[in-house]
Design goal:
CATH architecture of the largest domain: 2-Layer Sandwich
CATH class of the largest domain: Alpha Beta
Strand order of the largest sheet: 2-3-4-10-5-6-7
Number of strands: 11
Radius of gyration: 20 Å
Strand content: 15-25%
Largest sheet: 7 strands, mixed
CATH topology of the largest domain: Ribosomal Protein S8, Chain: A, domain 1
CATH superfamily of the largest domain: Malate/L-lactate/L-sulpholactate dehydrogenase, NADPH binding domain
Oligomer: single chain
Number of domains: 2
Number of helices: 11
């Protein structure tokens, strides 16, 4: 069904406050969840409210989130997420990175002691809209074997890049270093679907199309050894260098077995320190026009800028509402009832 974005935001805000988050933190986190759902990235959306409540009930999440800059020196900083909600730490890191890039040309901020920050594109796009280039990475609980291995070691360890274009549509790439995010396999398991055979190995190290067996085994890296190398690099930068946990010691946010210890790295580059911003915008206009005007492959109707597919989904959702599974809406309404709220999500009348 489709629900109004403002209703989904209010649902998430109410539940986050009920879980113990501050009103300000709840509003920001709710916005990141709604943006993810609107873009079709439901694994990083309101679906995460369920594990948040489970962790709060088990005393394994510290709310309200108290993220602080424990190192703040010239163009660099380190944010301690206080074992709270990752997006709150992510916002502080992004704000600091922007400030430092405006002053020094480049800002680098590392995050430690946090949980999943959600969709990395939220932060890189936030930075890029300030006339900047942004790069971000994050480590995660073991779910992928290094190339040649048959047991989980690194997480899916995503990498995101966003670049200012002077348009509402940015260059925005956000991808796991695995062939697919682990949340996608969880999603297919909930739906009772099979998965492609090249997504994962089972616990014995064999390829599988069963998502439940895949969850007992390990994901495959994108591009074989290339994706494996990127995942390891992300873990070193976002984990070891940030003073966060790292492979294979990070805990899953979806299992109640202690602090996750997730880390992240964020870079902001101020384009204006290198060239006139209008000149850069004109070059990007020419670049995008050349890209979209080139001869298309037989399977392609259009050549899309990285992030354009998700952007188009979000634009559509702003008009038609955000599409969620009926079961997901029912689960959110049950959570609202349990939290003592009279608010309920309902399908948009057609």
């Amino acid at each position: 069904m489709r629900v109004k974005r403002e209703d989904l935001f209010e649902c998430a805000r109410i539940l986050l406050v009920a879980a113990g988050e501050s009103p300000e933190g709840a509003e920001f986190v709710a916005e990141t969840f709604c943006k993810a759902d609107a873009r079709g990235i439901t694994t990083h959306g309101t679906y995460l409210l369920n594990p948040i409540f489970h962790r709060v009930e088990a005393n394994q999440l510290t709310l309200p989130t108290r993220a602080t800059a424990v190192i703040d020196n010239a163009g660099i900083a380190v944010v301690d997420g206080g074992d709270g909600l990752g997006p709150v730490a992510g916002k502080l890191a992004a704000d600091l990175a922007i400030q430092k890039a405006e002053q020094f040309g480049i800002g680098m901020v590392l995050i430690r002691n946090t949980n999943s920050v959600g969709s990395l594109a939220y932060y890189t796009e936030m930075i890029a809209r300030h006339g900047m280039v942004a790069l971000m990475s994050s480590n995660a609980a073991p779910s992928m074997a290094p190339w040649g291995g048959a047991e989980p070691f690194t997480g899916t360890n995503p990498i995101a890049v966003a670049i200012y274009t002077g348009r509402d549509l940015l260059f925005s790439a956000d991808m796991a270093t695995s062939i697919v995010a682990r949340g996608k396999i969880r999603q297919e398991a909930r739906r009772g679907n099979q998965i492609p055979a090249d997504w994962a190995l089972d616990a014995q190290g064999n390829k599988t199309t069963d998502p439940n067996e895949a969850l007992k085994g390990t994901l495959m890296p994108m591009g074989g050894p290339k994706g494996s190398a990127l995942a390891l690099a992300v873990d070193i930068l976002s984990g070891i260098m940030a003073g966060a946990e790292h492979a294979p010691n990070i805990r899953s946010f979806h299992a109640l077995d202690g602090k996750t210890g997730v880390g992240a790295s964020l870079f902001a580059i101020d384009i204006k320190k290198f060239m006139d911003l209008d000149e850069f915008k004109q070059s990007m206009d020419d670049y995008i026009s050349s890209l979209k005007g080139m001869k298309k492959a037989g399977f392609a109707k259009e050549i899309l800028l990285p992030g354009e597919l998700e952007y188009n989904r979000e634009v559509e959702c702003s008009k038609l509402g955000i599409s969620l599974d009926d079961a997901a809406v029912e689960a959110l309404n049950q959570m609202l009832e349990k939290a003592g709220s009279i608010f309920r999500l309902a399908a948009i009348s057609q």
